[in-house]
């Protein structure tokens, strides 16, 4: 197949670019990139953590602007710098082999990865269909690629110097954005990105075709709010990784960005700068009580806005969008840092709230009833530490911890430096609850009993400490690692990766784990889950070469760091 070669029995996708595509590359830096040193170097554990922390402290401010193209080395493992080289863990080769087996091709080009592939049964699980074509009396294989699921795989390929896969994915999903989107008789917004797409291989006609799903096939028929945000974030990651801005500057990509922005920046009846969302619109794609203004969507929204502003052309239309973005970012950062942030002092303040306050001098602006604060949060909150709570809306605060939203808040700099450090303090202080024996709890704590029946509608998959209801998801390892590196605490990531390495390969890379400590393979967890594999690889590569952080991290905008004042009577 064109553009591929066999290496060690595995498909290795070429990432060769033409000279015209490399106009923005610094070729001297490519030539100076250290070759792989196959002699044994000191492992991470043999080097002092303080040594790495010093290096991070010196370089953290330059991650966003550093261009560090990926490169391959060894047996399908990422390139290592001489200074930060690791002895590869035996799991790494297995992980790369499994990741490559998950690739989905469209007309000879890799365009994504399937969500899970069970090697034992040689059947693709859950996310595919095998359809019988009665007119041709043959089987057509239908492989499904989920947009959010592909993100860690995309980052792994970028860090390994294989950007072509990511480029094809970005262009194919952009093409699907232009399709008319209807659920029953209702037409979705023009900028909506698909939750997934299927590649239908017809062996009789020898043709490939794409079929997009914008939520009409999803559980509960909910459109994915996060897909467009992940697409923008991934486009920026591609640009940062390759140093090639020509893709983002294409007219069709500029139009795609603007269509997504038009959807989420439109004015309506909202009095808040946050996005109002339905349950099941993100990674937590089943009913779990996240309707309203979930932290995951708000953090991704913030990161996508900042990413888009860096890629929009400065023509007349582009400048107008940038102005709208800047205004929204200022309002959104103030709102999130003020009202979603919870630490010991803020918890104590909420506990002492008065209710039924009116006018602009109100302290309890959302009229939250103190008696609605759950008992567990008083014991969970350490003296040092804090986090962005799950949701804030009139008379309602969801005090649950959600890992993805808090990690993205750190990476996007939605969290201030002080807040980012407090989130890491909380993770360390509540390690057993949030990490346990397998990183990382998607949400904490689990809801159960009568609350579970009301909130989930008696969902048999989201029972307590399972799946989205307090389950442990290995894919979140890459987000935790990135947050640890950005905050200068790589030792936390190392500890989490060590935990994962004791189980993941032995358990055949499951989708999630169950139990308070994440001790048991999930009761309905798919084996050889692609994003569990990719999340591990991305975490390993970032810890090995922290400069990779630049493609998925944004430094704090000093202009968006206001003094947080809720009202003139806040301290009264």
Sum this structure up briefly.
The protein is of the alpha+beta class and 572 residues long.
Mean pLDDT: 84
Structural class: alpha+beta
Helix content: 25-40%
Distance between the termini: 71 Å
Number of strands: 22
Number of helices: 19
Unreliable segments of 5+ consecutive residues: 1-62, 71-85, 122-139, 563-572
Radius of gyration equals: 23 Å
Strand content: 5-15%
What's the main sheet like? Answer: 4 strands, antiparallel
Strand order of the largest sheet: 9-10-13-14
Describe it for me?
- With 572 residues, the protein is an alpha+beta fold.
- It has 19 helices and 22 strands.
- The strands form 10 sheets. Strands 9-10-13-14 form a 4-stranded antiparallel sheet.
- Helix 9 (295-311) runs antiparallel to helix 10 and helix 9 runs parallel beside helix 13.
- The longest helix is centred in the middle third of the chain and has 25 residues, at 316-340.
- It starts with a strand and ends in a 28-residue tail after the last helix.
- The model is unreliable at 1-62, 71-85, 122-139 and 563-572 (pLDDT under 50).
List the helices and strands and how they pair.
Blueprint: E1 4-7, E2 10-13, H1 27-32, H2 49-59, E3 72-73, E4 77-78, H3 90-101, E5 103-106, E6 109-113, E7 117-118, E8 123-124, E9 128-133, E10 138-146, H4 147-159, H5 163-177, E11 182-183, E12 186-187, E13 196-202, E14 207-213, H6 226-242, H7 246-249, H8 251-265, H9 295-311, H10 316-340, E15 341-343, H11 344-351, H12 375-380, E16 386-388, E17 391-393, E18 396-398, E19 401-402, H13 403-412, H14 417-429, H15 431-434, E20 443-444, H16 449-456, H17 477-486, H18 490-501, E21 513-514, E22 520-521, H19 530-544
């Amino acid at each position: 197949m064109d553009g591929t070669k066999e290496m060690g029995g595995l498909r290795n996708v070429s990432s060769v670019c033409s000279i015209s595509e490399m106009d923005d590359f610094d070729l001297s830096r490519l030539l100076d990139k250290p070759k792989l040193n196959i002699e044994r170097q000191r492992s991470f554990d043999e080097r002092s953590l303080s040594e790495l922390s010093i290096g991070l402290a010196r370089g953290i401010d330059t991650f966003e602007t550093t261009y560090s193209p990926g490169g391959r080395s060894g047996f399908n493992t990422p390139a290592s710098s001489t200074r930060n080289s690791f002895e590869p863990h035996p799991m790494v080769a297995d992980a790369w082999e499994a990741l490559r087996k998950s690739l989905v091709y469209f007309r000879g080009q890799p365009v994504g990865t399937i969500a899970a592939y069970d090697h034992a049964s040689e059947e693709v699980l859950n996310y595919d269909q095998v359809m019988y074509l009665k007119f041709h009396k043959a089987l057509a294989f239908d492989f499904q690629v989920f947009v959010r699921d592909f993100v860690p795989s995309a980052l792994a390929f970028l860090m390994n110097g294989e950007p072509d896969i990511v480029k094809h994915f970005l262009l194919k999903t952009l093409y699907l954005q232009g399709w008319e989107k209807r659920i029953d008789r209702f037409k979705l917004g023009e900028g909506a990105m698909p939750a997934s797409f299927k590649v239908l291989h017809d062996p009789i006609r020898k043709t490939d075709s794409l079929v997009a799903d914008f939520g009409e096939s999803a559980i509960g028929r909910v459109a994915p709010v996060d897909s467009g945000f992940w697409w923008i974030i991934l486009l920026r990651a591609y640009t940062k990784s390759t140093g090639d801005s020509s893709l983002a500057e294409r007219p069709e990509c500029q139009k795609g960005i603007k269509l997504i922005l038009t959807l989420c920046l439109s004015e309506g009846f909202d009095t808040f700068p946050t996005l109002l969302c339905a349950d099941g619109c993100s990674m937590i794609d089943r009913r779990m009580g996240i309707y309203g203004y979930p932290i995951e969507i708000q953090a991704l929204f913030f990161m996508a806005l900042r990413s888009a502003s860096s890629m929009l052309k400065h023509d007349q239309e582009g400048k107008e969008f940038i102005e709208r973005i800047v205004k929204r970012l200022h309002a959104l950062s103030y709102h999130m840092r003020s009202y979603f942030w919870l630490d010991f002092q803020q918890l104590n303040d909420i506990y002492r709230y008065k209710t039924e306050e009116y006018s602009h001098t109100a302290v309890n602006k959302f009229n939250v009833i103190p008696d609605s604060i759950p008992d567990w949060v008083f014991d969970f909150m350490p003296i040092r530490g804090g986090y962005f709570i799950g949701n804030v809306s009139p008379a309602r605060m969801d005090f649950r911890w959600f890992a993805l939203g808090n990690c993205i808040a750190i990476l996007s700099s939605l969290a201030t430096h002080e807040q980012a450090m407090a989130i890491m303090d909380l993770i360390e202080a509540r390690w057993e609850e949030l990490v346990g024996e397998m990183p990382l709890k998607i949400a904490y704590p689990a809801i159960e009993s009568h609350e579970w029946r009301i909130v989930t509608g008696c969902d048999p998959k989201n029972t307590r400490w399972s799946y989205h209801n307090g389950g442990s998801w290995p894919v979140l390892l890459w987000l935790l690692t990135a947050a640890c590196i950005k905050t200068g605490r790589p030792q936390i990531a190392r500890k989490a990766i060590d935990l994962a390495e004791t189980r993941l390969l032995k358990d055949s890379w499951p989708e999630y784990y169950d139990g308070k400590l994440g001790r048991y393979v999930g009761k309905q967890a798919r084996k050889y889950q692609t994003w569990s594999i990719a999340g591990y690889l991305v975490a390993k590569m970032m810890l090995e070469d922290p400069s990779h952080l630049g493609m998925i991290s944004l430094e704090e905008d000093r202009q968006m760091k206001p003094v947080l004042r809720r009202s003139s009577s806040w301290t009264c």
